[in-house]
Design a protein that fits this description.
Layout: H1 4-10, E1 17-23, E2 41-46, E3 51-57, H2 58-63, H3 66-81, H4 83-94, H5 98-131
Parallel strand pairs: 1-3
Antiparallel strand pairs: 2-3
Helix pairs in contact: 3-5, 4-5
């Protein structure tokens, strides 16, 4: 996948196996009313095996630019970096009484995604700054 090896190295994912795949024609991957794809990519992580899969929406991939692709791949790879914490959080939530699980699952998912998005923003800005010689 274009740009993946850079993030594999930058995020020190050596030893992890990452498979890449594509999907198309899923309802959640169609353009929304604003003309944007609702989901560009997703990751499935098995941190105990250092085995992961990143799947990208083919329609989105055909119309995105390199900067957005770079941010998306970084974002998905950050899910790999934080996968052990995700697993731990889900195990703890799994021990909660059933009436509380759904609330905490939703909250945990939302906060995890917000944290990954913020980390993506920080890391891609740092990476762009490192490679931008026009400001020096």
């Amino acid at each position: 996948m274009r740009g993946a090896s850079k993030w594999y190295k930058t995020l020190a994912l050596h030893g992890n196996k990452i498979k890449y795949g594509f999907w198309q024609n899923l309802v959640s991957s169609k353009e929304n009313s604003a003309g944007n794809f609702e989901r560009a990519a997703e990751s499935v992580c098995y941190p105990e095996y250092l085995d992961h899969r990143i799947t990208v929406n083919e329609g989105w991939l055909k119309c995105t630019d390199q900067e957005e692709l770079d941010e998306t791949i970084c974002h998905e790879m950050l899910h790999i970096v934080t996968a052990p914490l995700w697993d731990l959080g889900n195990k703890i939530i799994g021990e909660l009484p059933s009436q509380k699980k759904a609330i905490y699952e939703d909250w945990f998912t939302t906060e995890n995604e917000k944290a990954i998005s913020k980390l993506t923003e920080i890391i891609t800005r740092l990476e762009r700054g490192k490679n931008d010689t026009s400001t020096r």
